[in-house]
Amino acid sequence: MLLFGSHSGINAKGASLIASMLRFASRRMPPDARVLFGAQDDAPARSAGIALDRPVTVLPCPFDGEPRLRTECRRIGFLGHQRPEKGIDHLVALTQALRQRDATLSVLVHDSGFDLEQSGAAETLRGLGAEVEIGPVTPGQWQALLQSCDILMAPDDPLSGPANHSAIVTEAVAGAIPVIVPAATGAADFVRRWNGGHETFADWTVPGIAAAVERLQGNFTAQAQRSLAAADAWQNTQGADRFAQVLLDQAAQIAADHR
Q: Is residue 68 part of a domain?
């Protein structure tokens, strides 16, 4: 039994490395080996099955959300490790643009690294009225940050790895939170497959991203309802309990095969 962990957000170098690993494994696997693949979506698992020339069991994604219906958009969240490819250089101007359009809008910025603090951008954001949280958080604190947001932002460079898939986008689907994602990317495809509430931007610019937020806010009730329906569907097939159950079922089957 082999367990590969990946998602579709890997870059070309990473994809090449994984392909090499799969080819190496396929030459050494016994004919009856079971392959379990853990990923945030099933695209890399399908590729693994082709490379290994055998069936691959896709593990449920172990993300558990706390879905609720959001009734109005009062808070927008930028959560996770803020890096250049994830739009860190747009944060100040984007926060300024959003707050200028609606001074009552709350903006939450969390950076699990310390790039914002070290660059001085954290202080600038606080001066614009944003709430800024710096550093790693516990699972409970992370869930509280998610729950406090009405829209999650994934303002990633469309040509980057995170744009192909981001954990934040998975959190958005699991937690019934409408999300902003770059158009024509794996992240956008992922939300559409779950029919989650979202809006996209084609231009990786402050005006382009801000316009996507405005469109989502203008149709927020319908988008929030879509997000809740997507989260309900997610809970039916994904989550930590189902992830563990598939592992247990596979282990039991292996034990039975070798009696």
A: no
Residue 67 lies in a domain: no
198 shares a domain with 108? yes
Q: What would the pLDDT profile of 100-145 be if each residue is shown by its tens digit?
A: 999 999 999 999 999 999 999 999 999 999 999 999 999 999 999 9
User: Which one-letter DSSP state was computed for residue 246?
Assistant: H
Of the candidates 253, 197, 220, 239, the residue with the CA atom closest to the CA atom of residue 59: 239
Total tally of structural domains belonging to the chain:
2
**CA–CA distance, 153 with 7 (Å, rounded to integer):** 19
Whether 69 is covered by a domain: the verdict is no
List C-alpha distances in Å: 98 to 2, 68, 92, 168: 47, 24, 10, 20
pTM of the model: 0.87
- Are the CB atoms for 192 and 181 separated by under 8 Å? no
| DSSP structure string for 82-129 | --GGGTGGGHHHHHHHHHHH-TT-EEEEEESSSHHHHHTHHHHHHHTT
